[in-house]
Amino acid sequence: MNTYQASEQPDDPSPVIPALSAVPVDLPGAVDKLRQSAKDASKLMVNLTAKQCMVLGNQKPVCHQVFDIKDEEIFRRVRKNGTLSKPTNHLRAPKHAVGPPSPESEWLYELEEIADRDNPWIFQGQVEGQAGRQYLFTYRADAKDERCEWEESPIRAKAFDGPVDCFEQVLTDKDFKVVSVSREMLPPDPCKTQLIQTTLYYDWVKLEGIESPVLLPARERMMAIIQGEKSARYESVTWAGYEKFRVDHKISAEVR
Predict the structure, then answer these.
(1) What angle (nearest 5°) sits at the alpha carbon of residue 168, between those of residues 164 and 173?
(2) In Å, how far from its chain's centre is CA 162?
(3) Across the strands, what pairs with 235?
């Protein structure tokens, strides 16, 4: 099956990582509040199912039904006729995708990473915009800090799998709930990938059994500059149709 057929979805010309300007404010304990909010929110991201669709550039989406079961992800590819494939723990990503597919998607554990006390977030201050008052936190790390990892196995080039220099940016609402997470990574030589940028956006979702809407990943945008390629690669991922399910309804462990 040819995954890449013409699509009417236009390229998104906006920057992958939004440029944010914060006004310094005196807010004691801001970093602790960020960590606690992220920790509380991560507890809600278990026993969920959603439709996950990946799009490379302006090509046709590759979609899966994704299940989060006790810190394990199971994927079922959504075929053209709407039926689902057998369960697998291997994500089928578009060819020439920005990053390598992983059995454990970073978005699932992003909040846990933000809550990790080993990450020295810097509170930059308050951001004003259409969404009202928001707060900005940043973190810059060298490869020796082992905060950001990159894996690459390009054809006719030396493979790389290890820590890289990176910059991270977290935007929260006025209650310190995470609204977006951005990351820029700079792989070293001999990587063919020279720059990777990603931004993961959260949106309010009403889940059955939970009284108030919760913030869950809604979409992610990615960009990579590859040595020898004339233009940057762009990729997007969306999650929709979130539902909670009972653990005793666990999907068959049969994976391939």
Answers:
(1) 160
(2) 19
(3) 56, 222
Domain ranges of the chain: 30-247
- Tell me the CA distances in angstroms from 136 to 32, 38, 69, 168, 169, one per residue in order: 14, 14, 32, 11, 7
Distance from C-alpha of 68 to C-alpha of 52, rounded to nearest angstrom = 12
Taking the CA atoms of residue 6, residue 3, residue 105 and residue 137 in that order, the dihedral angle to the nearest 10 degrees is -20
Residue the block writes with tokens 């998607």: 105
pLDDT band at 23 (very low <50, low <70, confident <90, very high): very high
Tokens of 51: 């439709």
166-184 confidence digits (pLDDT tens) = 999 999 999 999 999 999 9
Distance CA(100)–CA(199), nearest Å, equals 17
- Which H helix or E strand runs over 160? strand 160-172
Supply the CATH classification number for the domain 30-247: 2.50.20
The pLDDT confidence band at residue 151, using thresholds 50, 70 and 90, is confident
Helix locations, 43-115, DSSP H: 106-115
Q: How far is residue 243's CA from residue 239's CA, in Å, rounded to a whole number? A: 11
pLDDT level of residue 256 (50, 70, 90 thresholds): very low
At residue 8, the pLDDT reads 37
Evaluate the omega torsion of the peptide bond into residue 24 and state whether it is cis, within 30 degrees of 0: no
